[in-house]
Amino acid sequence: MGKLTTKGVQKLVRESKPGMTNDGDGLYLKIGKGGGASWIYRFRWNSKLRDMGLGSFANTSLSEAREMASEQRKLVKQGIDPLAAREQKTEIEAGPVTFTHCAARYIQSHRRSWRNAKHARQWVSTLKTYVRPVIGNLPVEEVTTQDILKILTPIWTVKNETAKRVQGRIENVLDFAAAHEYRDPVNPARWRGHLDKLLAKPSRIQKVSHHPAMPYEQVAAFMDLIQRYSSMSSKALQFLILTATRTSEVLNAEWHEVDIAKKTWRIPAERMKANREHRVPLSSQAMDLLLCLPRVKGNNHIFPGMKAGRSLSNMSLLQFMRGLGYGTNGEQGNYVPHGFRSSFRDWTGEVTSYPRDVAEMALAHTIENKVEAAYRRGDLFEKRRAMMQEWANFVIPARKSGLFGLDLKSLNKNR
């Protein structure tokens, strides 16, 4: 059945036959047992179908119902429950705007610009744990500096990194509230020129915790060890070491990102910590590893997991190393996968003559000096290619790789 027309709707209402008539895209005309007619928007939320009333037929035209349904579809696409959003709006209109209401609206407004769902969950979790018990139900216009200090002081020295995030999130929510004229523009959670006068500087109290890194002299022996394993976790860990990339970048890698002919892996910006595309030159050893990996039908991940269409889990590489005796309190050492980036960096600084910026570019580190960042245009790709090949030769000497010299064309045909 096609879309409804105004005449068609009027006919259905006159006939008063109970039931639901679909207009498309989730909009329905519902005729009740008593003959009453109303508009319903039906959507799926958390794998369950839910109905949302959009008004009676007598007070809402077909075009108005379609417009309202369209607004609700947009919310669903943004990851927002339309029913919850309407309930929240009703609560706000019914009384003073609380900090919790404002925080929820801020998250809804910004979550599409955040890199992943995990970031949104972290926002909710920190505000629920540290902020809501103190100012959650307080009208946002009444939040003061003393309230902010009551939240931050207990955790400022013991959980400074978390406390700094909480401070920044409160500051953003209160700026959001001021922009909507719910409170005075003066922000009691502002750091610069306000809280920095009341709390110790994070740099003075934060303890820098680096990922335990295996000494670069031991990496070749470690690579020789893990090459004896045929598991996908072993292959992924080898690739991580050869490319000096992050765990998430490797586990989420897909075949379309790799240019076999140019021996290059392009990691898209949305998967990079700096939110900028990163080109990785692939050494002969990295290419040999890739070309021997199986392709799984329906799964474009280079390192597929057990579940259909999914990659290896985030813990797979860490668990693999733990099985070999590494990790926290491990008998072989407390080294973790991410630490191999430091192993690589130490090797470039102590063994090679490559400039610092070439190594930093290989690690996709952000240039903190704004002048230097503006001046540098390229990504030193060819210099990095030579460096990454030397690194590969260091951790997997040619004599230990029986794949060098493979016919790439014949391998590609067989994949």
Elements, N to C (H/E): HEEEEHHHHHHHHHHEEEHHHHHHH
| Topology, number of strands | 7
Terminal residue distance: 45 Å
How much strand content do the residues show? 5-15%
State the helical fraction: 40-55%
Largest sheet composition: 4 strands, antiparallel
User: What is the spatial order of strands in the main beta sheet?
Assistant: 1-2-3-4
- Tally of individual helices: 18
Net shape:
globular
Mean pLDDT over the full residue set: 86
Radius of gyration: 28 Å
Low-pLDDT segments, ≥5 res: 401-415
Structural class: alpha+beta
Account of the 3D structure:
This protein has 415 residues and is an alpha+beta fold. 47% of the residues lie in helices and 9% in strands. The strands form 2 sheets. Strands 1-2-3-4 form a 4-stranded antiparallel β-sheet. Strands 5-6-7 form a 3-stranded antiparallel β-sheet. A hairpin with a 4-residue loop joins strand 5 and strand 6. Helix 4 runs antiparallel to helix 5, helix 5 crosses helix 7 and helix 15 crosses helix 17. The radius of gyration is 28 Å and the shape is globular. The chain starts with 5 loop residues before the first helix and ends with a helix. The C terminus is likely disordered.
